[in-house]
Amino acid sequence: MDPITALTRPADGPPQGALVLLHGRGSSEHDLVDLFDLVDPERRLVGITPRAPLALPPGGRHWYALREIGYPDPATFLATMQLAGEWLDGLAESTGVPLERTVLGGFSQGCVMSWALGLAAGRQRPAGIIGLSGFMPTVDGFQLDLVYNQLSEAGSWYLTPGFLRITPDVVREVMEIAGSPRSPYFEAMRRQTVPPEALLIRRMEGLLFAVLGELRAGADWNALMREGLFGLEGPTTELGLAEAEWLGGARPTVAPAA
């Protein structure tokens, strides 16, 4: 395993933040460096592209040995986490930008490492994470932060693909995880700081969820969520098609007041 080296695109003047981009499997630190001038043409940020520490077949640099999608090789993954974590922790000294003003981003294996470095239990949180074409790693000896686990369980009704019938029992179970003193995450919740806007959205989500439970509504809520948030391929659900038809039809307009 080699030391982590990196290319740096400096900011024009004192950097307002930092953007760290981790390349994918079989690539190198040169792969993503041109993106800095595309996403930050004014050069407000210092950009850093580290090189993965492993040279493995079939060539290029790797962050860990590939075994099974979703389950990185534990030995190489954990060793890279240690090495990359130490490198990231020392980055503020060389850039002058603290981690709370640093965004991690990555593609493929770089996405996996961005999620892992940004959300691992016990690690400081970056300003944000950009993950493209990757997954959340499952590795013996590696734990994600409790906040991620709580959000995953509380949002399981729309994060999990497939049909789900929402009943009052389902609502009760999810709401207990999300905010009850009986939640296994309650002690962590007591130390959390939530922006008012996010708190309002969570309360609106909870009210909607409770209404769906009273209605015993059933749907593929994950498909509806992806359709509403991304809509890249157009509507595919019955509700989405009906809404598209309504939006595309002629609707009465209100004449402006004289």
Describe this structure in words.
This protein is of the alpha/beta class and 258 residues long. The protein folds into two domains: 139 residues, Alpha/Beta hydrolase fold, catalytic domain (Rossmann fold, 3-Layer(aba) Sandwich); 89 residues, no CATH class. It is 41% helix and 14% strand. It has a five-stranded mixed sheet, with helices on one face. Strand 4 and strand 5 form a beta hairpin. 25% of the residues are buried. The mean pLDDT is 88.
Largest sheet at a glance? 5 strands, mixed
Q: Give the DSSP E fraction (strand runs of 2 or more residues).
A: 5-15%
Q: How many individual β-strands?
A: 9
What CATH first level of the largest domain would be assigned? Alpha Beta
What's the N-to-C terminus distance?
A: 75 Å
Structure classification: alpha/beta
Q: What is the helix tally? A: 11
Mean pLDDT: 88
Which spans of ≥5 residues are poorly predicted at pLDDT below 50?
none
Helix content: 40-55%
Output the radius of gyration. 22 Å
Q: How many domains is the backbone divided into?
A: 2
> Could you please say which CATH topology of the largest domain applies here?
Rossmann fold
Shape: globular
Encode the helix/strand succession as letters: EEHEEEHHEHEHHEHHHEHH
Task: Sum this structure up briefly.
The protein is of the alpha/beta class and 258 residues long. It contains 11 helices and 9 strands.
